[in-house]
């Protein structure tokens, strides 16, 4: 899926007022997701994304970024996830949760189903619930 198409879908799903907020939300969610996933898995996700979205995700997977120490997999849940997304996107946590669900739905359509199964399996239940309904119900981990 192309960058413009992904941003447009996020804008529509999250009901954002423009492409700028959709771009910020997408980058915020992908960066935070990269921090939450094992770095190898985050790298595999980034490899299936357009370069504009892959680069920040790879950078977050490989380095601490934003003053946060790189957490070990499984070390933070939805509250921290939403807080980080909100801070990066410049919004409040309720909006960050809504925008995260939209970005994850678009991501689900953009990468291979097998890879999204691995992503779902690496996330705690509370974050996994942001995935599209079929993935959120799968107990892969």
How does this structure look, described?
- The termini are far apart.
- The chain is globular, with a radius of gyration of 13 Å.
- The chain has 141 residues and is mainly alpha-helical.
- It contains nine helices and no strands.
List keywords for this structure.
about 140 residues; about 0% strand; single chain; mainly alpha
Write the layout of secondary structure elements.
Elements: H1 3-14, H2 19-36, H3 39-47, H4 51-62, H5 78-89, H6 93-110, H7 113-122, H8 125-128, H9 133-137
Helix pairs in contact: 1-2, 1-6, 2-4, 2-5, 2-6, 3-4, 3-7, 5-6
Low-confidence segments:
65-74
Instruction: Return the string of H and E elements.
Output: HHHHHHHHH
N→C terminal distance: 27 Å
Instruction: Describe the sheet with the most strands.
Output: none
How many individual helices? 9
Percentage of helical residues? over 70%
Fraction in beta strands: under 5%
The count of DSSP E runs of length 2 or more, i.e. the number of strands, is: 0
Q: How would you sum up the global shape? A: globular
Identify the quaternary structure here. Answer: single chain
Compact overview of the structure:
This protein is mainly alpha-helical. Helices cover 71% and strands 0% of the residues. Helix 1 crosses helix 2 and helix 2 (19-36) packs across helix 6 (93-110).
